[in-house]
Amino acid sequence: MKASLTIAALAAASILASQAAAQTGAAVVGKGPGVAAAAQTVKVTATITAIDAATRDVTLKGPQGREVVVTAGPEVRNFAQMKVGDKVDVEYAEALTLELKKGGGMPVAKTETAGAARAKPGEQPAGMVGRQVTVVADVVAVDKDKQMVTLKGPKQTVDLKVRDPKQLALIAKGDQVEAVYTQAVAVVVSPAK
Q1: pTM of the entire structure?
Q2: What's the CA gap between 88 and 13, in Å, rounded?
Q3: Where does residue 55 rank: exposed (0-12), middle (13-18), buried (19+ CB within 10 A)?
């Protein structure tokens, strides 16, 4: 799948989700010794109110009545199966995990992976895109009085405030922090009932 589908799906999800103040969704925050994580999901259902086959523009009406136009690129299979009145379910998820790596030893680096899937020919239109970014950074300084940890990553150095004294006590110069950010969006079109 090309970037245009990713951009269109993410734009539709964010526009519809923001106007709906998240029709449904959940947020989770957790931590353990040397680990902190946060995740959230947003689910929105929209209705197709117009389709322009020549331009492949699809007008979606969100739960609060706001309309948004999304262009379905050529990589969107089964476009002709979409009809006015069909439901479009969009689910967006993102998560961030920070993990302390005592003693270091990993290469300081940023890696990114991405993936996509789409409906098979003849199936209802659907697709999913996602990406994961992993950054490993060295702990170059710890200021317990100011509750600050300085991390040097592959491209920049940042100071992070660590408010939890138990977590801060675990961190020492020479350790590393691995941050993993994941985001995904899935779109499914269902026939009108």
Answers
A1: 0.77
A2: 11
A3: exposed
Question: Smallest Cα–Cα separation from 186: which of 4, 1, 10?
Answer: 10
Q: What are phi and psi of 73, to 5 degrees?
A: -65, 175
> Could you tell me which residues come within 8 angstroms of residue 49 by beta carbon, excluding any fewer than 6 positions away?
59, 60, 61, 67, 84
Pick left, alpha or beta for residue 115 (phi over 0 → left; psi -120 to 50 → alpha; otherwise beta).
beta
- 3-state secondary structure string across the chain: CCHHHHHHHHHHHHHHHHHHCCCEEEEEEEEECCEEEEEEEEEEEEEEEEEECCCCEEEEECCCCCEEEEECCCCCCCHHHCCCCCEEEEEEEEEEEEEEECCCCCCCEEEEEEEEEECCCCCCCEEEEEEEEEEEEEEEEEECCCCEEEEECCCCEEEEECCCHHHHHHCCCCCEEEEEEEEEEEEEEECCC
pLDDT single digits (tens) 50-97: 999 999 999 999 999 999 999 988 888 899 999 999 999 999 999 999
Give the total residue count for the chain. 193
The chain-wide mean pLDDT, for the chain, equals 87
CA 25 to the chain's CA centroid: 13
| Contact in structure between 86 and 190 (CB atoms under 8 Å) | yes
